[in-house]
Design a protein that fits this description.
Layout (H helix, E strand, L loop, with lengths): L11 E10 L3 E5 L4 E3 L3 H17 L14 H35 E7 L3 H4 L6 H7 L1 H15 L2 E5 L25 E3 L6 E3 H11 L53 H7 L1
Parallel strand pairs: 1-4, 4-5
Antiparallel strand pairs: 1-2, 2-3, 6-7
Helix pairs in contact: 1-2, 2-5
Length: 264
């Protein structure tokens, strides 16, 4: 069925907000607001471990011998499923409230194109990254912004938002994950690294002109020369690096008869 939505206009239509997602804090906005990470899964881990230990002591199914699970095992598995559902619902409810507030408050929202699948490959941060729901937050912001007639700007994946100084535009070569305070070696500016990244994301969008992907400002940094190319593609704020063909083998063209006769 088709319905007509009448979503309210944002409270601050002329304000652009950069949203930096993380693990320590769910989101850090360029306006200075910090959204704490509720960590629903970490809170429920103690009860989840207890139920899983309880299920291991019950008589479970065995497909090889045809043994059927006991009723106590079924009850424990039902409690485990209920706990997982509670955690998922709490996470989804928090993301819906955050994304609705972002769409109804700001006129433009800038997010990062994060490689969430690659971030979950880190065995030390897999559970924390999966518990945040970064991809779900981006999905909700995009479709809610389309309902309200707003535009969501996605920064290029390799844009060094955390390594770039939001004051002078200098780019640091290295920035460890343990460095929570960003200190610029050029101008000496010191700021929380997440807040600095949020400022850089907000600066990508110009107040007057914007492209379908993300508008670029005049003071936009070129990025880290060691990781990104300086070439820029159309409709991309930070430039898309050209494909690396250094390792490709080029086949030598076999000269034809006409070429050989011409050379001789």
């Amino acid at each position: 069925m088709e319905i007509t939505r009448n979503d309210p206009a944002p409270a601050q239509p002329g304000v652009t907000v950069g949203v930096d997602l993380g693990i320590k804090s769910l989101a850090v906005l360029s306006t200075g607001e910090v959204i704490d990470n509720p960590k629903h899964l970490e809170v429920a881990l103690r009860e989840l471990r207890r139920l899983q230990r309880q299920a291991s002591r019950r008589t479970g199914p065995d497909h090889r011998s045809g043994q059927k699970p006991s009723n106590r095992w079924r009850k424990t598995q039902a409690r485990i499923a209920t706990l997982h559902t509670t955690v998922a619902n709490a996470r989804r409810d928090g993301l819906h409230k955050l994304t609705t507030w972002l769409v109804r408050t700001f006129g433009a929202i800038v997010l990062e194109d994060l490689n969430v699948a690659g971030m979950t490959r880190n065995r030390r941060l897999t559970r924390q990254v999966a518990g945040v729901g970064m991809a779900e937050l981006r999905r909700q912001v995009e479709y809610k912004a389309s309902w309200a007639g707003l535009r969501v700007h996605i920064a290029y994946r390799w844009y060094p938002s955390s390594k770039t100084c939001s004051d002078c535009g200098a780019v640091r070569t290295k920035l460890h994950l343990s460095d929570r305070i960003f200190t610029c070696p050029s101008c000496g500016m010191s700021m929380d690294r997440d807040l600095n990244a949020a400022h850089n994301l907000a600066n990508l969008v110009d107040a007057t002109t914007s492209s379908p992907s993300c508008g670029a400002t005049e003071n936009e940094p070129d990025g880290n020369p060691h990781k990104t190319r300086t070439t820029r593609a159309a409709d991309i704020a930070t430039g898309r690096p050209a494909p690396n063909s250094a390792g490709q083998r080029r086949h030598r063209k076999v000269p034809t008869h006409d070429t050989l006769s011409h050379v001789s």
